[in-house]
Structures are given as structure tokens and as C-alpha cells.
Design a protein that fits this description.
Order of helices and strands: HHH
InterPro entries: DUF4235
Protein name: DUF4235 domain-containing protein
Distance between the termini: 31 Å
Number of helices: 3
Radius of gyration: 19 Å
Helix content: over 70%
Strand content: under 5%
Organism: Nocardioides daedukensis
Largest sheet: none
Keywords: Membrane, Transmembrane, Transmembrane helix
Oligomer: single chain
Number of strands: 0
Length: 105
């Protein structure tokens, strides 16, 4: 189980970092196409218009979170196909749900 846990940790980390890098590049390009300007390098800077800072935080945060979630799901599917079972941290979610369902019934 320990080697599976290490493998999942590495696979999950690579998926997360890779998806964040791809998302950042896509969002920067999308922002420039939509606004004609470079994205704010520091939205907290008072020289950045508040609407621009709020929009940047909303769009970039949402897009990066969705990309990371999709990459994690893809990595989990690959892990299941490779090992025949869920990664350790996802298995605990299944166990908790089963326990909660058992308590209700």
C-alpha cells in the first residue's frame, strides 16, 4: 500500500502542476484576447482597477480550480486502471460515504 500511496502522490502532483501551468497559459492568452491587455501581474496593486482585479481573480481562480479538478480525476482514472483500486485518499471518501449510508439505513 505504501508504494501505491507514493505513486498516487507523485501522479497527483504532476497532474496538478501540469494542469495549473496549462491553465495559466490559457487564461493569460484568453485575457489578452478578451481585453486587449496583459493580465494584471498583481491584482492587489492599487494601480490596477478594482473591476479588473476582481474579474481576474474570479476568472483565473475558477478556471485553474476546474483544470486541477479535471486533471486529478484523469489521474485517478489512470490510477484505477493501473492498480484496480482507487487511490488511498479517494478510497477514504468512499469508506466514509459507505459508513454514513450504513448509519442511515
Amino acid at each position: 500500500m505504501a508504494s501505491g500511496s507514493k505513486a498516487w502522490t507523485i501522479l497527483s502532483l504532476v497532474a496538478t502542476l501540469g494542469s495549473a501551468a496549462v491553465a495559466k497559459k490559457a487564461i493569460d492568452g484568453g485575457w489578452k484576447a478578451a481585453t486587449g491587455k496583459q493580465p494584471p501581474s498583481n491584482p492587489a496593486d492599487p494601480d490596477v482597477d478594482i473591476w479588473e482585479a476582481v474579474m481576474w481573480a474570479t476568472v483565473s481562480g475558477t478556471f485553474i480550480a476546474v483544470m486541477k479538478m479535471l486533471a486529478s480525476r484523469k489521474a485517478a482514472n489512470y490510477y484505477v486502471k493501473s492498480t484496480g483500486h482507487l487511490p488511498p485518499d479517494l478510497q477514504s471518501d468512499v469508506d466514509a460515504a459507505a459508513k454514513a449510508a450504513g448509519a442511515k439505513g
